[in-house]
Design brief:
With 306 residues, the chain is of the alpha/beta class. 41% of the residues lie in helices and 20% in strands. Helix 3 packs parallel to helix 5 and helix 8 packs across helix 12.
């Protein structure tokens, strides 16, 4: 997803002199290449995320459109007060891009995991939250964020995410989209963990269990009608996210079910109010914490068959 972000940002920098890339010592070849071509539109603040957020709010107040890019854990947690007070309270046109959401920083442990950012940030007024599932969808989210006049947070994976779209990404701001159709149950999923869900759903399909997969790319504002529609069709729905079950997408779905007096049962799949354990590749960490395709398959099957 990093390459997709850089490509999208490059196009915006080239077309609009007011777009500013705000970095924190990312240290990649892409950063250096863009800085050479757009020296007046790239600012490296170093490891100083709080100052960067405050400065981005100031840039936005002067008519600039800053894209603030850094490790998502440092952005969502370390700079929370600055996001709330400097950006969202003032409704400034700042775009926050968190890289390495979920368990992407798999070898660095829980200090670098971002598994509570949805819960922390969705309570802040004025903030749009986007969660692309693939590189192509990330491009759509970057362009949508640029069009929005106000604060936006984009949560993205780290690298080598699987592309689920054969053609163009089916993205519409504020709307969920159905990736796979099914008549037995529905699964709402956000982010790149959708590749694990699709693998699990494929295995269930081989056993005659057809599951609908709903991609949640806009977390705030949440597509309530999508949830209501699936609840009217299904007796049980699932949510899957690389995030704590508390306060995540599953919680947003639960609110909609309760507020609309719906009788559909919701099963949340995510971290069980805990920090993730283990070290290794991203794939290994998903397996260790019960968020890989095998565990998702087993949970869904057990709930539907038993």
């Amino acid at each position: 997803m990093q390459k997709s972000y850089v490509n999208s940002l490059y196009k915006l920098l080239k077309s609009d002199k007011n777009v500013i890339s705000c970095l924190s010592d990312s240290g990649t070849d892409y950063d250096e290449m863009i800085a050479r071509e757009f020296p007046d539109q790239v600012i490296n603040f170093g490891i100083s995320e709080n100052n960067k957020i405050g400065a981005a709010a100031g840039l936005a107040s002067c008519g600039k459109t800053p894209f603030v890019y850094t490790t998502s854990a440092f952005l969502a947690y370390r700079s929370y007060e600055f996001i709330r007070n400097d950006v969202c309270l003032q409704n400034q046109n700042v775009k926050l891009v968190g890289m390495g959401c979920g368990l992407s920083w798999s070898t660095l442990g829980s200090t670098h995991h971002t598994t509570e950012d949805i819960a922390a940030l969705k309570a802040i007024p004025n903030l749009t939250i986007l969660s692309p599932c693939s590189p192509k969808e990330l491009e759509c989210c970057v362009n949508a964020a640029y069009q929005i006049k106000g604060p936006v947070y984009i949560r993205m994976g780290m690298s080598n995410e699987i592309e689920i779209y054969d053609g163009e990404a089916s993205f519409e701001l504020g709307k969920n989209n159905i990736i796979k159709t099914g008549n037995r149950a529905a699964v709402f999923v956000t982010g790149s963990i959708i590749s694990e869900v699709l693998e699990a759903i494929h295995k269930l399909k081989e056993e005659g269990i057809e599951i609908e997969v709903v991609n949640v790319s806009t977390i705030k504002p949440f597509d309530q009608q999508s949830v209501i529609a699936e609840c009217k069709k299904n007796h049980v729905i699932f949510s899957v996210e690389e995030h704590n079950k508390i306060g995540g997408v599953g919680s947003s779905i639960a609110d909609i079910i309760a507020e609309n007096n719906l009788s559909t049962k919701l099963i949340k799949i995510g971290l069980e109010d805990c920090f993730a354990t283990g070290y290794g590749t991203h794939k290994q960490l998903l397996e260790m914490n019960g968020l890989d395709a095998k565990h998702i398959y087993e949970i869904i099957k057990n709930k539907l068959v038993n």
